């Protein structure tokens, strides 16, 4: 394989430890709202796995990676657990091929009908210490409306299996604003989730993405979604209920018990470096951003031919990285550190955005508290509008 552009990947002093991401782009079936890079298949192809193994070995030997200590590994998808027992070997290989900090956070995403106690136990043994389960709803009616391939019973069984296998850090993904969902249904889902005592919850509002079955249904008027007020009520209920349950919000859609915030995602929101391996994965190494080809077959074919499966790459200008750091950082309730921005980019939000930031402050949407710029209580519910002005 050719050497990557090593001159671009020069170490930057004061950089924080990067994260490693592996993408498994296969699912048992496609959900009606899904716009992720994932493909339905009964059994996932072995050729993709061998290509991924190749890429892990290749990148683990590159200078940029050898000079760094990684702090997190995240295996996401798609449905990584569709590979069953083979996944543990993949995690093992990653942990051996890269240098990791002591006690790295190692997350695997899973869908409820793809896990068993023995399989989860082998993941635990391989070093996986965080499981992220795509539950979405505790209602067979709503799961059916979403086109999910699992039932409420399977979701409950998967959470129990994860505890039995020894997982002490579990995230549950849930969605609100679903077709046919009322605030009372959402309350029920949250109550059911909390009854399992998860350490982390990710609560996403359904968004209708282009070229999905849901987008076509909206066009035909065949999808009835809850009204804006009802969705806002669901969002408000989420923060209140989860805060009372000891899972305060730390990011627009993420809630965690103290000490259980997702370190891997925090690195994204802090605009840190990360290496993404697999079809369609994106990497950002010291400000150099590149992606790999999206189609798994092409990805595997290129790797097996001895080529790097790269798609696009760009070296972001300093101002663009600064803006990105502000916008990503404001997603977290703690906001962005002004001193850190100054140190990394030699810029401050007040100096860079000038009047626009003043306006947002006067409207009470953002605030400066000690060293941090953050969204205010009033700004959080309209985060997307505020952030779009700062991009
Ligand atoms: S399980 Fe996730 S990645 Fe797979 S089709 Fe459904 S939403 Fe997409």
3D structure, described in words:
Strands 9-10-8-7-6-5-4-1-11 form a nine-stranded mixed beta sheet, sandwiched between helices. A three-stranded antiparallel beta sheet has the order 12-13-14, with no helix packed on it. The protein has a three-stranded antiparallel beta sheet with strand order 15-17-16. Helices cover 40% and strands 21% of the residues. It has two domains: 19-269, Aldolase class I (TIM Barrel), CATH 3.20.20.70; 318-390, Arc Repressor Mutant, subunit A (Orthogonal Bundle), CATH 1.10.10. The model is unreliable at 1-13 (pLDDT under 50). The chain has 16 helices and 17 strands. With 391 residues, it is an alpha/beta fold. Iron/sulfur cluster (SF4) binds next to loops.
The domain tally reads 2
Order of strands, widest sheet: 9-10-8-7-6-5-4-1-11
CATH domain class of the largest domain: Alpha Beta
Q: Roughly how much helix do the residues carry, as a percent range? A: 25-40%
Overall shape: it is globular
- Residue stretches low in confidence (pLDDT < 50, at least 5 long) are 1-13
CATH superfamily of the largest domain: Aldolase class I
Q: What do the pLDDT scores average to? A: 94
CATH architecture of the largest domain: Alpha-Beta Barrel
Class per helix and strand makeup: alpha/beta
């Amino acid at each position: 394989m050719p050497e990557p552009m090593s001159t671009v990947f020069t170490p930057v002093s004061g950089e924080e430890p990067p994260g490693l991401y592996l993408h498994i782009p296969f699912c048992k079936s496609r959900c009606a709202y899904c716009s992720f890079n994932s493909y339905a298949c009964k059994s996932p192809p072995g050729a993709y796995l061998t290509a991924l193994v190749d890429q892990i070995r290749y990148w683990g030997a590159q200078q940029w990676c050898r000079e760094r200590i990684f702090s997190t590994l995240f295996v996401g998808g798609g449905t990584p657990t569709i590979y069953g027992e083979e996944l543990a070997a993949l995690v093992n290989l990653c942990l051996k091929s890269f240098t990791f900090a002591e006690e790295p956070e190692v997350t695997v995403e899973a869908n409820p009908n793809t896990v068993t106690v023995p399989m989860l136990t082998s993941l635990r043994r391989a070093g996986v210490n965080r499981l992220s389960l795509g539950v979405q709803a505790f209602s067979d009616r709503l799961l059916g409306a979403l086109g999910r391939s699992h039932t409420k019973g399977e979701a409950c069984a998967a959470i129990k299996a994860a505890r039995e296998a020894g997982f002490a850090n579990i995230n549950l993904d849930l969605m609100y604003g679903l077709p046919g969902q009322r605030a009372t249904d959402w309350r029920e889902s949250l109550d059911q989730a909390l009854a399992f005592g998860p350490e982390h919850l990710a609560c996403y509002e359904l968004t209708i993405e282009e070229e999905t079955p849901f987008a076509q249904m909206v066009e035909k008027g065949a999808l009835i979604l809850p009204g804006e007020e009802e969705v806002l009520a669901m969002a408000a209920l989420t923060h209140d209920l989860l805060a009372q349950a000891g899972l305060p919000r730390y990011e627009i859609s993420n809630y965690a018990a103290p000490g259980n915030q997702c370190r891997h995602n925090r690195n994204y929101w802090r605009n840190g470096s990360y290496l993404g391996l697999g079809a369609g994965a994106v990497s950002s190494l010291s400000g150099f951003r590149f992606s790999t080809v999206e189609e798994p077959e092409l990805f595997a074919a290129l790797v097996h031919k001895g080529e790097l499966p790269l798609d696009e790459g760009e070296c972001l200008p300093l101002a663009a990285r600064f803006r990105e750091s502000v916008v990503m950082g404001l997603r977290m309730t703690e906001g962005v550190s002004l001193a850190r921005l100054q140190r990394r980019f030699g810029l401050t939000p007040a100096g860079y955005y000038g009047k626009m930031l003043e306006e947002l402050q006067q409207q009470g949407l953002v605030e400066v508290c000690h060293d941090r710029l953050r969204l205010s209580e009033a700004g959080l519910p309209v985060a997307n509008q505020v952030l779009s002005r700062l991009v």
